[in-house]
Amino acid sequence: MIRIGQGFDVHQLVKNRKLIIGGVEIPYEKGLLGHSDADVLLHALADAVLGALSKGDIGKWFPDNDPSIKGIDSKEILKSVWKEAKNDGFRIENADMIIIAQRPKMADHIPEMQKVISSILECNLEQVNIKATTTEKLGFTGRGEGIAAQAVVLLSK
Question: Where does a divalent metal cation bind (predicted)?
Fold first, then answer.
């Protein structure tokens, strides 16, 4: 059985928050606002996995009005979602993701993000692809107001 899922997430950039993307802290003057650490890439990936499993989205599994998960590390969200996939007998064939941000530049951080994600998904680095793009200074990402991410996964069992 082969299942495909896609995910999307966006968070606002604000002062006095750490910028964490793909499980990696990135030095920057702003961070992403959210109930968790607001890691847009891991949120999009978790949503993609849940989509492939036909099990809703992370808002259902980790609601932003639940005080017990305030500030949760998004790696824990992805680990929980991945455990669900494994319990259902699935393995990852590949994950393809894109970070949409005018700044900061992501290229230097992508190899570490791939390591973090491949470790959580228990797969080879070659099964995890991460790209980054700008929006040519257009829209909220182009104005530096936020960062978005998209993910697609292929699962099999």
Answer: 9, 11, 43
